[in-house]
Amino acid sequence: MRAQEKNGESWIQGNQLGVVLIIGFMLYFMFLLLFICSGQKADSLTPVKIKTEHRKIPDNSIYFELLGNSIMGSLNYERLFVNGHDFYLSGRLGTGYIPGIFQSVSFPVMMTGMYQVSNNFLFELGIGGSLQYTFWQNYISGGGFFGDGGGDLVPGGSFYDPLIIGFAGMRVQGKKGFLFRFGFTPVYALIKNTKYGAVYSMNDRAFLPWFGLSFGYSFGKRK
Structure pTM? Predict the structure, then answer.
């Protein structure tokens, strides 16, 4: 058990720099995008324009979320159920994956409300759940680089981890279908699994304050 726990901790510690670099890239890209979008004509955001020239966003979207509700990344499909003048309600299904000695597959499901503030920008707020399945194969602990260090054999195993997930952020919806999202993506573990739980391995707590960045394409515009 201790060997499994040490390997899990070493995997997280070894990937901390990569996670920090990804978050730094997300913040840089977010501010760059906002700077570029701020160069549009001023009259495109006047109150009259906002009330009369909102484009309807497409009914279907497929996007990849970096980090986010599946912790490392996920592929998602989104469908609009309510397509109003300024307010939209959508449902999302996805699947995510975390590589490593302790591998995880997750299946996030979420309901999201969106409020359109201009043709291209919407605020998003969503809540849902995710079932995370973590598994590992037999391996030798402390066996050296080539596995010849005489370490102990650790048997394989698996477990399920139900999570509550959320999203609060902004969506950029391009006229030709381009989709970009960024925001706060908190994750809360319903089961206290301090040894192998993906949430607990990140910060030793049930609650993980996290962030996500999405790129995708929207299609099937409602007439």
Answer: 0.73
